[in-house]
Amino acid sequence: MKTVEMDSRDATIALGQKIGQQLAAGDVLVLDGDLGAGKTTFTKGLAKGLEIPDIIKSPTFTIIHEYHDGRLPLYHMDAYRLENGGAEDLGLEEYFDSDGVSVVEWAEFVADELPADFLAIHFRRTDDESKRVLEFEPHGDHFDQLVSTVVG
Question: Which of 31, 106, 119, 142 is in Cβ range 3.0-4.6 Å of 80 for a Cys bridge?
Protein backbone atom coordinates (compact mmCIF):
# COMPACT_ATOMS: atom_id res chain seq x y z
CA MET A 1 0.00 0.00 0.00
CA LYS A 2 1.31 3.45 -0.93
CA THR A 3 0.28 6.54 1.05
CA VAL A 4 0.49 10.15 -0.14
CA GLU A 5 -0.58 13.43 1.41
CA MET A 6 -2.39 15.96 -0.73
CA ASP A 7 -2.00 19.52 0.47
CA SER A 8 -4.68 21.13 -1.70
CA ARG A 9 -7.66 20.53 -3.93
CA ASP A 10 -5.47 21.39 -6.95
CA ALA A 11 -2.90 18.74 -5.94
CA THR A 12 -5.68 16.13 -5.71
CA ILE A 13 -6.94 17.07 -9.18
CA ALA A 14 -3.40 16.95 -10.59
CA LEU A 15 -2.78 13.47 -9.18
CA GLY A 16 -6.12 12.29 -10.56
CA GLN A 17 -5.15 13.70 -13.96
CA LYS A 18 -1.80 11.87 -13.95
CA ILE A 19 -3.56 8.60 -13.12
CA GLY A 20 -6.28 9.23 -15.71
CA GLN A 21 -3.63 9.60 -18.42
CA GLN A 22 -2.41 6.06 -17.66
CA LEU A 23 -5.77 4.27 -17.54
CA ALA A 24 -7.01 1.79 -20.12
CA ALA A 25 -10.38 0.42 -21.15
CA GLY A 26 -11.81 -1.87 -18.49
CA ASP A 27 -9.90 -0.32 -15.59
CA VAL A 28 -11.85 -0.11 -12.33
CA LEU A 29 -11.06 2.28 -9.47
CA VAL A 30 -12.75 2.03 -6.10
CA LEU A 31 -12.82 5.18 -3.96
CA ASP A 32 -13.80 5.25 -0.32
CA GLY A 33 -13.78 7.87 2.39
CA ASP A 34 -16.04 10.20 4.32
CA LEU A 35 -18.23 12.78 2.64
CA GLY A 36 -16.07 15.70 1.60
CA ALA A 37 -12.86 13.67 1.70
CA GLY A 38 -11.99 14.39 -1.95
CA LYS A 39 -13.43 11.49 -3.97
CA THR A 40 -15.28 13.65 -6.49
CA THR A 41 -12.41 16.16 -6.63
CA PHE A 42 -10.05 13.31 -7.51
CA THR A 43 -12.52 12.05 -10.15
CA LYS A 44 -12.55 15.52 -11.73
CA GLY A 45 -8.80 15.18 -12.22
CA LEU A 46 -9.19 11.65 -13.52
CA ALA A 47 -11.66 12.96 -16.11
CA LYS A 48 -9.12 15.61 -17.17
CA GLY A 49 -6.59 12.83 -17.69
CA LEU A 50 -9.15 11.02 -19.84
CA GLU A 51 -9.65 14.26 -21.84
CA ILE A 52 -13.31 14.52 -20.81
CA PRO A 53 -14.50 18.14 -21.15
CA ASP A 54 -17.71 17.71 -19.14
CA ILE A 55 -18.28 19.03 -15.63
CA ILE A 56 -17.99 16.08 -13.23
CA LYS A 57 -20.65 15.90 -10.54
CA SER A 58 -21.18 13.45 -7.73
CA PRO A 59 -23.53 10.65 -8.85
CA THR A 60 -25.15 10.34 -5.42
CA PHE A 61 -28.75 10.57 -6.60
CA THR A 62 -28.41 9.00 -10.05
CA ILE A 63 -26.11 6.11 -9.03
CA ILE A 64 -24.21 6.24 -12.37
CA HIS A 65 -23.04 9.22 -14.45
CA GLU A 66 -21.68 8.37 -17.89
CA TYR A 67 -19.24 10.63 -19.73
CA HIS A 68 -18.48 9.63 -23.34
CA ASP A 69 -16.59 12.58 -24.86
CA GLY A 70 -13.02 11.74 -23.88
CA ARG A 71 -10.15 9.44 -24.79
CA LEU A 72 -12.13 6.72 -23.00
CA PRO A 73 -15.63 6.80 -21.52
CA LEU A 74 -15.88 7.36 -17.77
CA TYR A 75 -18.53 5.61 -15.68
CA HIS A 76 -18.72 7.33 -12.29
CA MET A 77 -20.79 5.31 -9.81
CA ASP A 78 -22.00 5.94 -6.29
CA ALA A 79 -23.13 2.66 -4.74
CA TYR A 80 -24.22 4.18 -1.43
CA ARG A 81 -27.91 3.86 -2.29
CA LEU A 82 -27.35 0.13 -2.94
CA GLU A 83 -26.68 -0.51 0.74
CA ASN A 84 -29.79 -2.68 0.93
CA GLY A 85 -29.14 -4.56 -2.32
CA GLY A 86 -29.91 -4.14 -5.99
CA ALA A 87 -26.37 -4.09 -7.40
CA GLU A 88 -26.88 -7.31 -9.31
CA ASP A 89 -29.76 -5.66 -11.22
CA LEU A 90 -27.62 -2.78 -12.52
CA GLY A 91 -25.40 -4.89 -14.77
CA LEU A 92 -22.21 -3.49 -13.26
CA GLU A 93 -20.09 -6.20 -14.84
CA GLU A 94 -21.03 -4.76 -18.24
CA TYR A 95 -19.50 -1.44 -17.18
CA PHE A 96 -16.44 -3.15 -15.68
CA ASP A 97 -15.84 -5.15 -18.88
CA SER A 98 -16.53 -2.21 -21.19
CA ASP A 99 -14.53 0.18 -23.33
CA GLY A 100 -14.34 2.69 -20.50
CA VAL A 101 -13.02 3.38 -17.02
CA SER A 102 -15.26 2.73 -14.01
CA VAL A 103 -14.93 4.72 -10.79
CA VAL A 104 -16.98 3.32 -7.91
CA GLU A 105 -17.63 5.19 -4.67
CA TRP A 106 -18.97 3.23 -1.67
CA ALA A 107 -17.92 -0.02 -3.36
CA GLU A 108 -18.44 -2.06 -0.19
CA PHE A 109 -22.10 -2.23 -1.23
CA VAL A 110 -21.19 -3.87 -4.55
CA ALA A 111 -18.13 -5.86 -3.45
CA ASP A 112 -19.47 -9.11 -4.92
CA GLU A 113 -19.70 -7.45 -8.34
CA LEU A 114 -16.13 -6.10 -8.48
CA PRO A 115 -13.58 -7.69 -10.83
CA ALA A 116 -10.47 -9.39 -9.41
CA ASP A 117 -8.19 -6.55 -10.56
CA PHE A 118 -8.91 -3.00 -9.45
CA LEU A 119 -7.31 -0.05 -7.72
CA ALA A 120 -8.72 0.93 -4.32
CA ILE A 121 -7.99 4.46 -3.12
CA HIS A 122 -8.85 5.34 0.47
CA PHE A 123 -9.39 9.05 1.21
CA ARG A 124 -8.88 10.35 4.74
CA ARG A 125 -9.46 13.82 6.06
CA THR A 126 -6.86 15.35 8.38
CA ASP A 127 -7.02 17.95 11.12
CA ASP A 128 -5.95 20.48 8.48
CA GLU A 129 -9.03 21.04 6.30
CA SER A 130 -6.91 21.64 3.19
CA LYS A 131 -5.03 18.32 3.45
CA ARG A 132 -6.05 14.76 2.63
CA VAL A 133 -4.25 11.44 2.95
CA LEU A 134 -4.73 8.99 0.08
CA GLU A 135 -3.85 5.30 0.45
CA PHE A 136 -3.44 3.35 -2.77
CA GLU A 137 -4.22 -0.37 -2.58
CA PRO A 138 -3.63 -2.04 -5.96
CA HIS A 139 -5.20 -5.40 -6.77
CA GLY A 140 -3.42 -7.04 -9.71
CA ASP A 141 -0.15 -6.50 -11.59
CA HIS A 142 -1.55 -3.78 -13.85
CA PHE A 143 -2.46 -1.59 -10.89
CA ASP A 144 0.76 -2.42 -9.01
CA GLN A 145 2.62 -1.04 -12.04
CA LEU A 146 0.34 1.99 -12.35
CA VAL A 147 0.78 2.97 -8.70
CA SER A 148 4.57 2.56 -8.78
CA THR A 149 4.78 4.57 -12.04
CA VAL A 150 2.46 7.45 -11.10
CA VAL A 151 2.53 7.63 -7.31
CA GLY A 152 6.07 6.43 -6.74
Answer: 106
